[in-house]
Amino acid sequence: MNDSPRVLIIRPSALGDVCRSVPIAAALREHWPDAKIHWLVNAPWTDVLIAHPAIDRVIPFDRRGLGSSLKRLNPGPTLRLFKELRENRYDMVIEAQGLARSAIFARATGARQRIGYADAREFGWLALTDRVRLPKSIHTVTKMMGLLGPLGIRTEPDLRLYSPEYATEQISADAELSEPYLVLAPTSIWPGKRWPIGRFTELARRLTDVQHRVVVVGAPGERPQCRELLDLAAEGRPIIDRVGRTSIGQLMALIERSQLVLANDSAALHMAVGLGTPIVALFGPTDCARVGPFGHDEDVIQHVSPGDVLNHKDRAAGSELMQRITVDEVEQAIVHRLR
Question: Whose CA is closest to 302, among 185, 293, 197?
Fold first, then answer.
């Protein structure tokens, strides 16, 4: 292998997983300072990567658009993406997604070395030349770093993220965000991962009673989850509504400037870790040893008893676990981290 290989990292989704996959790029750059490092990612998450100094080029693809085209028996967009990948003449691919679709992308590059998981789902391992077998019990960040083993790269993961310049400038110029604030991210795609919104609301009352400013964040489709909390603004409380009103880059910059992020198991939490912002993480039906905020065990509030089911798809079991977290203990954790 030469000292300036052309490398493609494939980790298209999800947002939180993309955030905590950046140590792969950082380790490659440390090992090969002159390497050309590209990253194939689902287009909506491009902002997470475009300012990272270890990444030379981000290749976005429209996952939904490609899927729709194929359903209409129009393979043109997919074939054009395959052609672009092949023309980049990669020496190696790090396939960190572990699915059939991402494996197909890896194979389409024509790279001679294609590294990925030996247990990749949907027979994705068939597209690989180097199949790395790693324990399922280890943290996902440690597992991804294990993919660099065939290259002889072993280093501590660097999870730092970098907000895009455009977003930093826009958030810096936002008058509502000119004073110190806390970020609350009360949403999750999975109902079983959600701390009750009534408890977020009560906590926000307490925080604003002692003059804290609170910014609420979430995706556009998650406004119904936040309605009770956002209604506090009608009482004249300093609740700043940013639910569905930021780009991914703006969300990064907003989190980077905040005093603390309080979140369920969600992308905002992993983003805060990468941006060096203090966190309080609320976990229920999730194995934190595998997918918790990396290196932040002490910042997780979770109450698991023997026999509990850690299955985020089980709404009833997950909700019962989340309800064990009290407003008092979350408030105390926030006060402790703001000292």
Answer: 293
Are 6-151 and 165-338 the same fold in CATH? Answer: yes
What is the number of other CB atoms lying within 10 angstroms of the CB of residue 165? 12
Tell me the pLDDT of the chain (339 aa) as tens digits: 688 999 999 999 999 999 999 999 999 999 999 999 999 999 999 999 999 999 999 999 998 888 888 889 899 999 999 999 999 999 999 999 999 999 999 999 999 999 999 999 999 999 999 999 999 999 999 999 999 999 999 999 999 999 999 999 999 999 999 999 999 999 999 999 999 999 999 999 999 999 999 999 999 999 999 999 999 999 999 999 999 999 999 999 999 999 999 999 999 999 999 999 999 999 999 999 999 999 999 999 999 999 998 999 999 999 999 999 999 999 999 999 999
Contact between 37 and 56 under an 8 Å Cβ cutoff? The reply is yes
- Angle of CA points 18, 21, 22, to nearest 5°: 100
DSSP 4-47: S-EEEEE----HHHHHTTHHHHHHHHHH-TT-EEEEEEEGGGGG
CB atoms within 10 A of CB 219: 16
Token code pair at residue 101: 């679709």
Using CA atoms, how far residue 90 sits from 17, 169, 249, in Å, is 23, 35, 28
Domain extents in the chain: 6-151, 165-338
Residue labelled with tokens 């658009």: 65
Fold of domain 165-338: Rossmann fold (3.40.50)
Tokens found for residue 231: 């209604």
Distance CA(301)–CA(170), nearest Å, equals 33
Give 9's Cβ-side CA count (13 Å radius). Answer: 31
Q: Supply the CATH classification number for the domain 6-151.
A: 3.40.50.2000
